[in-house]
Amino acid sequence: MSKLTLADLKKLRDEKKKEMVKREEGKTTQIIIGMGTCGIAAGAKEVFDAFLDEIDAKGLTDVAVTQTGCMGKCHVEPTVEVFAPDMPPIVYRDVKTDIAKRIVNEHLIDRKIIADHIFDKPADILK
């Protein structure tokens, strides 16, 4: 393995900084991915990466993508909790990479809930 130069290290630092900005809390929209062992086994890492890629592709800057431990919903992993302004908090189930992209485009951008993947929702949207 070759040694890294100072320029290599600076480039790597800058790349990682860009990735970490997407994980900062305090943004108006939050996406929380269940990354317990069951979530990871079900593909949560790939889902996490798909969210980051799609958020980049759409130029969204006020979305934090974070992870949590086991959400206790092993039978419907990967699970993703979404908090967006002026929308009810939603937990999506069985989220694969294609559904992650739909969540970014339909839920975050178009402001529509993806009904076929809801696991949990507040009672007030059942009316």
Protein described:
This protein has 127 residues and is of the alpha+beta class. It has one domain (22-126): Glutaredoxin (3-Layer(aba) Sandwich). The chain is built from four helices and five strands. Strands 2-1-3-4-5 form a five-stranded mixed beta sheet, covered by helices on one side. Helix 3 (44-58) crosses helix 4. The termini are far apart.
Q: Class in CATH? A: Alpha Beta
How are the strands of the largest sheet arranged? Answer: 2-1-3-4-5
CATH architecture: 3-Layer(aba) Sandwich
Q: Determine the number of helices (DSSP H or I, runs of at least 4 residues).
A: 4
Q: Low-confidence runs (pLDDT<50, min 5 residues)?
A: 123-127
Basic shape: globular
CATH homologous superfamily identity: Glutaredoxin
Short description:
The chain is α+β, with helices and mostly antiparallel strands and about 130 residues long. The chain has helices at about 5-20, 35-40, 45-60, 95-110, and strands at about 30-35, 65-70, 80-85, 90, 120. The protein is globular and about 50 Å long.
SSE blueprint:
Layout: H1 6-21, E1 29-34, H2 37-41, H3 44-58, E2 63-68, E3 80-83, E4 90-92, H4 97-109, E5 118-120
Parallel strand pairs: 1-2
Antiparallel strand pairs: 1-3, 3-4, 4-5
Helix pairs in contact: 3-4
